[in-house]
Amino acid sequence: MPAKVNENTCMHCGGCTSVCPAQALELQETVLVVDTDKCIECGNCQKVCPVGAIKVVKG
Amino acid sequence: MNYEKEWDVIIVGAGPAGNMAAQEFAKRGMKALVIDRKQQIGPPKRCGEGLSIRWVKIGKLKPNPRWALQEITGATLVAPNGEKVYIDTGSTGQTGYIIERSQWEKMEAEKAIRSGAKYMLKALVTGLVMEGKAVKGVKVSREGKEEEYYAKLVVACDGVDSMVGRYAGLRTAMPLGECDSGYQYEMANVPIENPNYMELYFGTNVAPRGYVWVFPKGKDVANVGIGISGDSAETAKDCLDAWIEANHERFKDASITEINAGVIPVTKPVGEFVGDGIMLVGDAARMVNPIHGGGMGSALEAAQMAAEVGTAAIKKGDTSKKELMAYQKMWQEKRGGEFKKILHVRHFVEKLNDEQFNIVADLVKKGELKPEMLVDLGHGKGLAELIKALVKASPSITKFALSFLKG
Q1: Record: contact B161-A15, CB cut-off 8 A
Q2: What crossing angle do the helices spanning B383-393 and B337-349 adopt, rounded to 10°?
Q3: A contacts of B35 (beta carbons < 8 Å)
Q4: Assuming Cys at both sites, which of A10, A24, B393, B404 could form a disulfide with A38, CB separation 3.0 to 4.6 Å?
Q5: Can you give the pLDDT at residue B403?
Q6: Is residue B340 within 8 Å of B267, Cβ to Cβ?
Q7: Are residues B337 and B388 in the same domain?
Q8: What is the pLDDT of residues B171-180, one digit of tens each?
Q9: Are residues B128 and B139 both part of a single domain?
């Protein structure tokens, strides 16, 4: 399952995009967009997110 | 609002790097356009807002009470066991400010505009106009339309999450272990022992591989934040909330006026921060002091360098990577060595356990280590002195500590 963003808790800081090796995340002013085709489910975004707003379910 | 299509330079991002770049290019007679995705210059900040006097001078800033809110003349370091170490940095001239960053950014943009730069807001750069491998302009999504703007040079000042660098094919993605996850509350009615002193709290229970900070913005207002290792199992938010809860007595009558979050590079700069028709400046190139994560100052300095080299390249009619490489060389010569040393210090410090941190505090307390030495570490100096003192006090760390002396 690709990264899923909880828009309710996301701070839109863009931090996750800076550790995404696949360019699958993009901050567009107030929305964090996930390109599910590009996501490689590495989980970097989930780990780095300061508020735990991203979940990647592996497998 | 309508904008011309052709520019000498397009700067993406109106933060410290972008505003300084705009001023410096415009002052040299370059037609400069700054594009920012936000509808307002400034907020939301992703920053603890500390700026040392060294950068104030390099940036030729005139501290204005509208943004230079609190002068800093020292730091209180709190060891894991609660032992406090006071460092008077003011006596050696190493002062600084906690600033109102959004106000400052706006005023810097105003300066750039007075020098001739133009600003475009609420405009998202969605890609680059390319000619082969060379950047020739930017694709912008604005007012419901897709547009293109052209420039001889594009300067990416779009922060740690720089997309522009990636669009240009520069490798800017950061390994997880080389960044910190940051979270912060700006709070009011916080009891502050001394508003001239920054407070830093260490310990694995406080902040895994990082620290908690309380940066005063006045007598009872402060940025209360945390930076922890990017690959920690915990979130920065949970760690900060737990620390505030553990210090309930202090914070019970305080409350928040802002929530901030962000990821902080604590590593080396990106390998190549220039390409054909493009330069990266500031956080976008990860020009961040890897020991404390401060990046505003080095962004100012790098923007000045980028404008100097960039203007010469534009005037020469050659903005190729080869020509722009002079900027990377200039930065490496001026700051590269220092940042490398600071990273070395960081790698040592992040290996220290709580007991060893306590020993350092104890050594300072007993006068066996000068408190100023701890400030020097932030400039990449004094590591040998620290290691020698630690080895003497705690022989168990000898092996790994000595390996750092060689490196």
Answers
A1: yes
A2: 20
A3: none
A4: A24
A5: 84
A6: no
A7: no
A8: 888 999 999 9
A9: yes
How far is Cα B29 from Cα B157, in angstroms, rounded to an integer? Answer: 20
B115 within a domain of the structure (yes/no): yes
**Peptide bond preceding B216 in cis form (omega within 30 of 0):** no
Q: Give the nearest partner residue to A50 out of B122, B162, B237, using CB atoms.
A: B237
Partner-chain contact A47 B159, CB within 8 Å: no
Q: CA–CA separation, A40 vs B173, rounded Å?
A: 14
The predicted complex's ipTM stands at 0.95
Domains present along chain A, CATH in parentheses: 4-55 (3.30.70.20)
pLDDT tens-digit profile of B61-85?
Answer: 999 999 999 999 999 999 999 999 9
Q: Quick one: CA dihedral B99, B103, B104, B105, positive or negative?
A: positive
Establish if B287 belongs to a structural domain: yes
- List the structure tokens of B350: 């992040």
Which residue(s) pair with B11 in the sheet? B34, B155
**Burial environment of residue A41 by CB neighbours within 10 A (0 to 12, 13 to 18, 19 or more):** middle
Other C-beta atoms lying within 10 Å of the C-beta of residue B1: 8
pLDDT in tens, A36-53: 999 999 999 999 999 999
Q: Is residue B58 part of a domain?
A: no
- Same domain flag for B35 and B118: yes
What's the confidence (pLDDT) of residue B24? 98
Domain ranges, residue B391: 351-406
The residues of chain B scoring below 70 in pLDDT are: 406-407
The reply to whether B361 falls in a domain is: yes
The answer on B145 and B241 residing in a single domain is: no
Q: How many domains does chain B have?
A: 3
- pLDDT for B264 equals 96
